[in-house]
Amino acid sequence: MKALDSLRIFVITLKKGSLSAAARSLSLSPATISRRISALEEELGVQLVDRTSRNLKVTEAGQAFLERAEVVLEAMAEAEEAARKSKLVPEGRLRIHSRTQIGQRVIAPLLPRFAERYRDVRVEFELSEHPVNLVEQDFDIDIRTGESNDSSFVIKRLLSSEEVLVASPSFVKAHPRIRHPSDLPNLKCLTYRRERESTTWKYIDEQAEQQVLPIEGVLSSNNGEVLRIAAIGGMGIALLSEPTVRSNIGDGSLVRLLPEYRLAVRGFSNGIYAVFRQSRTLPLKVRAFVDFMAEALREDAAP
Q1: Which residues of the chain does CATH 3.40.190.10 include?
Q2: Contact 250, 126 (CB under 8 A)
Q3: Is residue 91 a contact partner of residue 83, using CB atoms and an 8 Å limit?
Q4: pLDDT tens digits for 146-176?
Q5: Is 275 in contact with 155 (CB distance < 8 Å)?
C-alpha cells in the first residue's frame, strides 16, 4: 500500500498547487511530501515536478503519470468500498453442491426464500451422487447427510433427522403386516447402493443393541429420489431420510413402517450437514446461507 500512498500524495499535492497546501491537507510536513515525491521520481526514473519555480509545475511526464494515477486511485477507492460493503451485505456467486435427493426435496424448495432475502447473492446449485472436493472443484458449501470426521473443513448440522421405513398404502395392503425389522430381508425392498457395495440395513433392537440385516432388494439405485418414486408406485419398502419423504407421509402417498424402531442405512448419527472451508474471515454469503438453511429447516420440522 506504500506505493498507493505515494500516488495519493503526488495527486493531492498537484491538485493543491503547493507543498504547504498539500501538507495541511494530508497532515504531513512539506519536507515529508517533498521526499515522497522525490522517491517516486527516483523509482520511475523521470522528473514529475519542476521545482525551479516558486510554485509546483508538472512536467510532461508528470502530466501523463498524473492522469493514470488518478484512474488507479479511483479504481482502488471503488475496490475498498466493495470490500467494505461485502462485510455488511452478502453478495456475489455462491457455489453449492448436494446429493441429488436432499438437494431436490429439501434444499431446492427453500432457495426462492433465500433469494428473496439475499438478492445480491447468485446461487449455483449442483447435484450429484459423488463426493466433491470443495477446494479443487471450487464449491463454497457441500450439503451432506451423515457425520464427517474431516477436520480440514467446518461441519455444521443444519437439521437432525432419522431414516424412516416407508411403503405405499397399496403395498402395505397387499402384504402381511410387518412386525419386526428381522422380517425385512424376506420382503421386497428398495435399496440405496453405490458402485457394487453390499447392502445392509441396521436397526436398534429391544436390548438397545445394533443389529445388521442383509438386504438384497428388488431395486437398487445410487439415487434416493428413484427409490422414493418407486416406493410411491408400490414397488417395495424404502429406507430414506425423513425430510425427503415428510410430505409424502403427510399426504398419505407413503406410510411409515415400524416407527418404534430406529433404522439406518449406514449410521445412526443422521442429519443434514453443511460443510465449508475453514477461514478466519468466513465470507458473509456462506454464513448467510448456512444460517438461513438451519433456521428454515428447523421451522419446517417443527410440529
Answers
A1: 92-153+284-301
A2: no
A3: no
A4: 766 667 789 899 998 899 999 999 999 999 8
A5: yes
Q: How far is CA 224 from the centre of its chain?
A: 22
Kindly report the CATH number that applies to the domain delimited by 92-153+284-301: 3.40.190.10
Residue type, 291: D
Task: Provide the Cα torsion 104, 166, 130, 265; round to 10°.
Answer: 150
Cα distance between residue 116 and residue 131, in whole Å: 29
Ranges for all domains in the chain classified under CATH 3.40.190.290: 163-264
Q: What is the CATH number of domain 163-264?
A: 3.40.190.290
State the CATH architecture for 2-86.
Orthogonal Bundle (1.10)
CA torsion 37→38→41→43, rounded to 10°? -110
Give residue-wise pLDDT tens across range 228-276. Answer: 999 999 999 999 999 999 999 999 999 999 999 999 987 776 789 999 9
